[in-house]
Design brief:
Chain A: InterPro entries: Pop5/Rpp14/Rnp2-like (IPR002759), RNase_P/MRP_POP5 (IPR016819), Rnp2-like_sf (IPR038085). The complex is a heterodimer of chains A (about 200) and B (about 325). Chain A is of the alpha+beta class. Chain A contains 7 helices and 5 strands, in the order βααααββαββαα. Chain A has helices at about 30-40, 50-60, 65, 70-95, 120-125, 150-175, 180-195; strands at about 5-15, 100-105, 110-115, 130, 135-145. The chains are: A alpha+beta (about 200), B alpha/beta (about 325).
């Protein structure tokens, strides 16, 4: 019996505007409650996939809402890019195995799965992505691995580096009131490790 | 070490405003060496100054304006990014002069606009990189005979990927042209660089390796195009610029180590040696040592007669 082999790609999206959506804990009370309850429905608070849907139906589209980019939107952007650059054959090769497993709008890291035979198509398509939802960006692949585990570990490592770097920057600016480093690290670890096959 | 030898230099103001400066960004996505590319076209006087300003905070050679041979050789893994300057001359007229104070730039490239000039560039020009506009339809075929001549002379060909990221038509042209170039050069003497005008046109080094596989190279060759080959270009440029007749290299006195100071014929007054940095002295290979720079040593001996540490034969003769 032959297994279907995959490649897992960990990528980072760097946006030109460099904006990060406000954390749920920083939003006004009622909004926060609604968002968390609706986010909790699919059992994964890390992926606010239903937040945008919810906001577009009830509230006017605000600046902060456009910043929440979901796995679905990444998937769409990627599909469009494959369609443009590799055509129908590209889509056909890839669509059965392509799956964007994780994307965090706060760290802008994501993990996706694709069959091993065609991962170069996906990688090429990622390279050619120019904008996501009208925000100019570039996609930078951080790790390509055979298992999701290694991608998760690489993601945690990357998050750790980023936390350290930003803390340092904040300290040099003289910002007090920082969350303890261990807490942040644990948070990122928990969030990344909830992603499963 | 990954290199990006083409970041278009006059950075437009809109980029600076968004805080995404292409001069800063490469560091974040994994490049260690960048070259800012200043492009000139038409006839220019030979006395044009180098307009490129480096970002001081990111520069490991903040003291020396032109990285000398020794600083390139002693390059260690460093947190800072190494910034170089590059001049690209667009040549569309055979009478055009391409060596505009080349010594002030680290890398020299030409971009010939027609087949005849391309041929002369491959055969005769003393440059480091031949760059072609691959994002448009090339007006001529690339022939192996012509390119082989350039490869023999150690000139590198450049593929800039930024046009492919900008729009779809140039993407088609670029992939087709790049595949031709790879086929004709057989994967030798190629470098891949960005040619980015905006930070968002840059891509990470491994993304470029993957892009190279799409252009018909294999992964290793493709990786060489942004690492080893670029390094080779820098060494070639260094040799072209600093080394005279491939025998004598010159370097500023400041780059000499304390135990080498005896070569200058003085030990105690090292401070004076550092003051006269601007007057470049020859650092010699062993054979050429005695002959090449006796004038400089003689002058030193004349200046301080009581200096007894000079161990050159000629200098002793002078004292008698």
């Amino acid at each position: 019996m032959v297994r279907i082999k995959n490649r897992w790609i960990l990528f980072e999206v760097i946006f030109e505007d460099n904006k990060i959506p406000p954390l749920p804990s920083l939003l006004p009370r009622h909004q926060q409650h609604e968002q968390i309850s609706s986010g909790g429905e699919d059992g994964d608070a890390a992926q606010p996939s239903s937040w945008r849907q919810h906001s577009s139906t009830k509230q006017p589209q605000t600046q902060s809402n456009t910043l929440y980019i979901t796995t679905k939107e990444i998937h769409h952007a990627l599909r469009d890019s494959i369609c443009l650059n590799f055509g129908d054959v590209g889509i056909g090769c890839v669509s059965s195995s392509l799956n964007v497993k994780y994307f965090s709008p706060f760290t802008n890291n994501g993990i996706l799965r694709v069959s091993r035979d065609h991962y170069r198509i996906i990688w090429g398509a990622l390279t050619f992505i120019n904008e996501i939802r009208g925000r100019r960006c570039l996609v930078h692949v951080l790790h390509v691995g055979g298992t999701i585990k290694k991608c998760q570990l690489a993601c945690i490592q990357h998050n750790r580096d980023q936390i350290l770097k930003r803390r340092q920057a904040a300290e040099s600016r003289g910002d007090g009131n920082l969350e303890p480093f261990e807490l942040l690290l644990e948070k990122s670890q928990k969030e990344v490790m909830t992603v499963t096959l | 070490m990954f290199y990006d030898l083409n970041i278009v230099y006059p950075v437009t103001q809109s980029n600076l405003n968004t805080g995404m400066n292409p001069q800063v960004e490469p560091r974040k996505i994994g490049y260690q060496v960048v070259a800012y590319n200043y492009i000139v076209s038409g006839k220019k006087s030979a006395k044009m100054a180098n307009p490129i300003k480096k970002i001081e905070a990111y520069d490991i050679h903040a003291t020396a304006s032109v990285p000398s041979s020794s600083s390139l050789l002693n390059n260690k893994k460093s947190l800072a990014i190494q910034q170089l300057t590059r001049l690209t001359v667009i040549i569309d007229d055979p009478s055009q002069n391409y060596n505009i104070i080349i010594s002030t730039y680290d890398v020299l490239a030409v971009q010939p606009m027609n087949e005849k000039l391309f041929q002369t560039a491959c055969n005769n020009y003393d440059v480091d990189i031949i760059s072609l506009e691959l994002g448009t339809r090339l007006p001529f075929y690339l022939k192996h005979g012509t390119l082989a001549k350039a490869i023999e002379r150690g000139i590198y060909f450049e593929i800039c990927y930024a046009p492919a990221i900008r729009d779809s038509t140039s993407r088609r042209h670029l992939i087709s042209n790049a595949q031709n170039l790879v086929r004709v050069t057989r994967g030798k003497n190629l470098i891949i660089s960005s040619g980015a005008q905006k930070a968002m046109e840059l891509r990470g080094p491994y993304d470029i390796v993957n892009l190279g596989t799409i252009m018909g190279m294999n992964q290793e060759v493709s990786k060489d195009c942004i690492s080893t080959n670029c390094r080779a270009v820098l060494y070639r440029a260094m040799t072209r610029r600093d080394i005279h007749k491939s025998v004598i290299a010159s370097a500023p006195i400041s780059s000499m180590k304390p135990y080498e100071m005896w070569k200058l014929g003085r030990v105690e007054n090292m401070t004076r040696g550092q003051q006269s940095e601007s007057s470049k002295k020859r650092k010699r290979s062993k054979k050429a040592k005695e002959e090449s720079d006796e004038a400089a040593i003689q002058k030193d001996v004349e200046k301080d007669d009581d200096d007894e540490f000079s161990d050159d034969g000629e200098a002793e003769v002078m004292e008698f």
